Amino acid sequence: MLRHSHISLVDITKRYGDHLVLDRVGFTVKPGERLGVIGDNGSGKSTLLRLLARVEEPDNGELTVIAPGGVGYLPQQLDLPEDRTVADAINLALADLREIEAAMRETERALADEPGAAEAYADLMARFEAREGWDADLRVDLALNALGLPGLDRGRALGTLSGGERSRLMLAATLASRPALLLLDEPSNDLDDAAVAWLEAQLRDWKGTVVAVTHDRAFLEAVTTAMVEVEGRGVRRYGDGYAGYLTAKAVERQQAQAAYERWTAEVQRQEGIVEHNAGRMDAIPRKLPMANMSTGAFRQRSRNHGASSRIKIAKQQLERLQAAPVAPPPEPMRFESGLTTTGADTQAPALRLRGVRVGDRLKVGDLEVAHGERVLITGPNGAGKTTLMRVLAGELAPDEGTAERTGAVGHLRQLSGPGSGRQSVLRVFAAGRVGTIEEHAEALLRLGLFEPDQFGKPVAALSTGQRRRLELARLVTRPVDVLLLDEPTNHLSPVLAEELQEALASYTGTVVLVSHDRRLRASFQGRRLEMDAGSVTGER
């Protein structure tokens, strides 16, 4: 595999119609780096990857992508008709290797007649062998086996594969092409733990350059050597992989807190100057004894003049400070237990199911969760985990059996978000709560989950990640006895996912958690239930 590649972006701008996605962004990727690209949904991560793949071109700026050893690009969606076959998809991923091989065959026929053909053939052979082209199809089979698709029929129509199976097929073929530059968009989606571990091992040993867009924190921690965060139409680069990124974000927060404290202290100091000197002026009598003597008159004018001058300067300073306020950093995320405020009976179970059945989706005999207990529910997609969470929350009535809960329950759903699509972010956040709209705006602002200019945005216009943040904002601003969290870190930025994980660790109430997040599961301490086909199949 040819290692050398070079990526450079200088003042890159990209827009779609009136929507500006990237604005004068710039960074470089060194040969052999493994770069993680992170950011909220809709921030421009996939757009950035398409630019690097030269699938799209920037509107402005200078983009340089040099990869003599080939480029492998894995988009989130496979761009092939459903009647095309598995073999067609593999050939698409191996297209440049197929082209080199075809050129070698053509050049072979000209070796005897054309001067320079031998040199051209040697160059093609070197490129092909550097990427171990002879074994490419064998590597596809090995990768498919590792990714859970052993023996996949090459003649099978793509329309008969699930979305996850298509993604794994293209991942296998893209890796098998052994390019010097790998561009991967959410490569760990739809993979089980064993498949992700295999993928991470492949990428750690990759002899070329890797750029991967992902929300998977465990993947970032295991693979990356550098990070790029896409935010506010710009990008910022961080060194030392995911650990370095987290350290840098913690330093940024400390710096923001220090800047806010300095600004606040200076405002208070200038206000104190105004108040102190106004008091001094008030203490000066309108007429002094012996005012007809020059010393008394001079003293009165001098003291009055000095105080008023200091007041004027302090007010000017206050105007300058207030014209450029320094916002405080967001408050640390915190889940508040409601046991002291809701009067919950802690002797009774927090949650109790008896003989519950919901169609053919869920069948649970007896299940109890005590107050303060923590339960992690795992299992494959379709195992019934979300149905169980909805029954526990009281949002879905069982066809048979009973579901009981004690105390206030907070449910963070996997898919649906709160409120009507026509309502604004602020109105949905404030719905059903006591207080003025101004008080709710202040509370939402302190969380740092939305900027003030987003408060009036209709919920229908929010991205999936923004809807998740809105539901999270409602959850962390009211006390609850029981937290039901269904894939809580889905669609969250890594920093926000880290904050949620820390907040969950310090929460003193009852927790029932469903998650595929390997980093979150690794930190979990409590009872673990395994589900499959709608039933609880194991406990540990």
Would you kindly provide a written description of the structure presented here, covering whatever features stand out?
Strands 5-6-7-3-8-9 form a six-stranded mixed beta sheet, with helices on both faces. The protein is built from 17 helices and 18 strands. The longest helix is centred in the middle third of the chain and has 43 residues, at 241-283. It folds into three domains: 6-248, Rossmann fold (3-Layer(aba) Sandwich), CATH 3.40.50.300; 253-285 and 295-323; 339-539, P-loop containing nucleotide triphosphate hydrolases (Rossmann fold), CATH 3.40.50.300. Helix content is 42%, strand content 21%. It is an alpha/beta fold and 540 residues long.
**Biggest sheet statistics:** 6 strands, mixed
CATH class of the largest domain: Alpha Beta
CATH architectural label of the largest domain = 3-Layer(aba) Sandwich
| Overall body shape | flat
- Sheet with the most strands: spatial strand order: 5-6-7-3-8-9
Distance between the termini: 45 Å
Q: What share of residues are in beta strands?
A: 15-25%
Helix content: 40-55%
Number of DSSP-assigned strands: 18
Roughly how many Å is the radius of gyration? 31 Å
Alpha-beta content class: alpha/beta
Looking at this structure, what is the CATH superfamily of the largest domain?
A: P-loop containing nucleotide triphosphate hydrolases
Annotated CATH topology of the largest domain = Rossmann fold
Mean pLDDT level: 88
- Summed up, the helix count is 17
- Low-confidence segments, given as residue ranges, are none
Q: Assembly state here?
A: single chain
**Whole-number total of structural domains:** 3
